[in-house]
Amino acid sequence: MAVCVAVIAKENYPLYIRSVPTESELKFHYMVHTSLDVVDEKISAMGKALVDQRELYLGLLYPTEDYKVYGYVTNSKVKFVMVVDSSNTALRDNEIRSMFRKLHNSYTDVMCNPFYNPGDRIQSRAFDSMVTSMMVQVC
Amino acid sequence: MEGLTLSDAEQKYYSDLFSYCDIESTKKVSANGRVLELFRAAQLPNDVVLQIMQLCGAKRLGYFGRSQFYIALKLVAVAQSGFPLRVESINTVKDLPLPRFVASKNEQESRHAASYSSDSENQGSYSGVIPPPPGRGQVKKGSISHDTVQPRTSADQQEPASPVVSPQQSPPASPHTWRKHSRHPSGGNSERPLAGPGPFWAPFGEAQSGSSAGDAVWSGHSPPPPQENWVSFADTPPTSTLLTMHPASVQDQTTVRTVASATTANEIRRQSSSYDDPWKITDEQRQYYVNQFKTIQPDLNGFIPGSAAKEFFTKSKLPILELSHIWELSDFDKDGALTLDEFCAAFHLVVARKNGYDLPEKLPESLMPKLIDLEDSADVGDQPGEVGYSGSPAEAPPSKSPSMPSLNQTWPELNQSSEDTAIVHPVPIRMTPSKIHMQEMELKRTGSDHANPTSPLLVKTSDLSEENKINSSVKFASGNTVADGYSSSDSFTSDPEQIGNNVTRQRSHSGTSPDNTAPPPPPPRPQPSHSRSSSLDMNRTFSVTTGQQQAGVVAQPPAVPPRPQPSQAPGPVVHRPVDADGLITHTSTSPQQIPEQPNFADFSQFEVFAASNVNEEQDDEAEKHPEVLPVEKASDPASSLRVAKTDSKMEEKTAASAPANVSKGTTPLAPPPKPVRRRLKSEDELRPEVDEHTQKTGVLAAVLASQPSIPRSVGKDKKAIQASIRRNKETNTVLARLNSELQQQLKDVLEERISLEVQLEQLRPFSHL
């Protein structure tokens, strides 16, 4: 279960960022921000070849003491960043992948909406509900 | 909402007020605007107004639906009469005077009146206009005292007409705004609310008072009352058309009032009537939508591209966010284009939204795209909000591929998750629980099938446990190939399926099953204790069986010990020892011993011989066999519980051949010992715990091997008989010991399995999929 989910546009500004409400939500924002460097690094490293050959799922970007940050980038350079709690050891790579897959699908649906201007913040309720479903359920 | 009983006069009054406030005829009134003005004009303190707004539920809903509005008005009356504001007071306070609203701004009134009369014929958009006469209520009810209203009485006379006229104008005129278009089909909709465009124009000085605080909690729910009103609108076009006929009868307020009351009565009826489907599209509406569709896309089976739809719906002047949400709801297959059904659903949602209905979170069932005729669209009224649409697969318009968005999304997941599961190779893991399940299933099954439930069950139990540990799936495969003389080879192959199915079914009850049966969840972690190196065998086995089941689903456990054949062959107890021996030898078979399968037959014959030999003994010996049975059967798993199937097969075969072999003599006796020894050797390669069993098996084999030497003529040599009795007793004790040990192992394994299952459940993340 993710603690924070963020969708970053190609120009590296956030299209959507949502965290589990804690007192230090800003920390998650910072983590996502710093992870962008790692994402770019991975993209550039892999992207020398054809973009198609590049794996969309980037994997663990970097771990911190409490959290792990995973990354996923689409072919249009839209990045999904997910912060998960390190204590949640049951989360395996496959599950992270599936979560990113769902994110990607929902993002595609948002894109398909003609009323959505690419570059706007994502305000889709469906997207919100999907992200909520994969966030840690804070009681 | 609390039941609100209104007198007729009140009803008319309130409906007029509501219509006045409902400037956009969206059937719901936002807190901003006329409502606030109205409440301000009620000359109540701001906190009272706030309280009223809270009580009527508008705060909760985010807007004033008709019922909320009515309740609010009633509360205003209550407050104005000096009664405490309570929810119950709306109904309990009798003879409440109609709420009074004091016009606060004359300019506004005059402006309203002027613009209203001027626009009476020209009701373009309601947003700017609606300046109904202040004294409207007075005109209608006569009980309201408006200081500033009275001078307007004359204007009031016209005003009733103008509101009546305006609705007429707007929808049919279909001029400028798209909104009119949308309202046209729901002509009754727009006409109805405007029927009595609020008597309180005047009081609507400024809008925003503290009641703007009520805006705080606007949340989008879809309350029943507005929906009911919506339904009523849909049903009252005829009555509203009456209203439209009244432009001439300006003075005929009575008529208007009558009509208004009729519609009001309709409303009341609607509100009190059973819960109709508010999202049902009437035929009239449907026809209108279709016409609109044609203007964009002549081909009714074609699509409206997203951009065209965007332009079209933008004309509705709904906020982009809401339009976006409507799009998400209505674009069923998420392809960025609208089919006719999707378009109608979207249109309907827009109309509903404009009339005050909240957008649902999920597409109501009646709006789901359907492959039905226009006439049928109205019949699909089901409970709203019931998203689980069963008919959708059948519906997709011919030009579109019917796939629900959820399906679109789940398919890739399914595929990939199955890939994942395939990659992770859950098969070997599942073996264990499945085996245990199979074991349980077998226990249940065999318990009912066999006259002697204990021994086969025991044997199977131990077999299964052994197989769990050893995972000799190849045995299973090899068992399959052991078709020599085994008629049930076909049934053998069918058995795994059957067993696999059974296992699958049973497994669904276990904690591990969800991992196996549901594609999305990743496969469970390999259980270290059961990761025998014989995974290769497993692979081979599963490559055999994958064709029978889909990947990712529980693969059939190789060594399921079903006993269909045993049930078919009602072997007497006597056969059990034969089976036991056969099992022993078979279980000890390793993958490399496939060529030795013929030996199985021999051995079975040997077993049969031994059994028959024993049979020929006196009954007491026969009685011993039941004892030996469990022991022997226990020893079977002891040796190697690989292919319980093979074992069972062997059992069957032995059982079947036992009667046939009873008469046979010592011929098979010689060969069997050798295979036994070889198997024993292979067993030595197995786990240490098997070794001891091997030893026991060896002992048993030795014992059994010694038996052939006993002359068959039973009654002839008492000594021989006694010797055999002694030997059998020894064998019995040995096997009993073996049995107990194996039982213990079984318990351990089961406990382990349970603990692993619990662990798995704990580790399983939230079902985010």
From TrEMBL, chain A:
Major site of localization recorded for this protein: cytoplasm
One Pfam family this sequence matches: Sedlin_N
Swiss-Prot/TrEMBL GO biological process terms: endoplasmic reticulum to Golgi vesicle-mediated transport
InterPro entries, sorted: Longin-like_dom_sf, Sedlin, TRAPPC, TRAPPC2L
SUPFAM superfamilies: SNARE-like
Gene3D superfamilies per the UniProt record, alphabetical: 3.30.450.70
GO annotation, cellular component aspect: endoplasmic reticulum; Golgi apparatus; perinuclear region of cytoplasm; TRAPP complex
UniProt subcellular location: Cytoplasm, Perinuclear region; Endoplasmic reticulum; Golgi apparatus, cis-Golgi network; Golgi apparatus
Keywords: Cytoplasm, Endoplasmic reticulum, ER-Golgi transport, Golgi apparatus, Transport
CDD domains associated with the record: TRAPPC2L
Recorded family membership: Belongs to the TRAPP small subunits family. Sedlin subfamily.
Quaternary organization: Part of the multisubunit transport protein particle (TRAPP) complex.
Protein name, UniProt field: Trafficking protein particle complex subunit
Organism classification: Eukaryota, Metazoa, Chordata, Craniata, Vertebrata
Gene: TRAPPC2L
Automatic annotation (TrEMBL), chain B:
Domain of life: Eukaryota
Region: Disordered, residue numbers: 105-236, 377-412, 444-464, 479-698
This protein's UniProt keywords: Calcium, Coiled coil, Metal-binding
Coiled coil: 728-759
Ranges of biased composition (kind: Low complexity): 547-557
Ranges where the EH domain occurs: 10-113, 285-369
InterPro entries: EF-hand-dom_pair, EF_Hand_1_Ca_BS, EF_hand_dom, EH_dom
Biased composition (Pro residues): 517-527, 558-569
A Pfam match: EH
Domain EF-hand: 318-353
Polar residues compositional bias, start-end: 115-126, 145-159, 479-516, 536-546, 585-596
Ranges of biased composition (kind: Basic and acidic residues): 644-654, 681-695
The protein's name: RalBP1-associated Eps domain-containing protein 1 isoform X4
UniProt gene name: REPS1
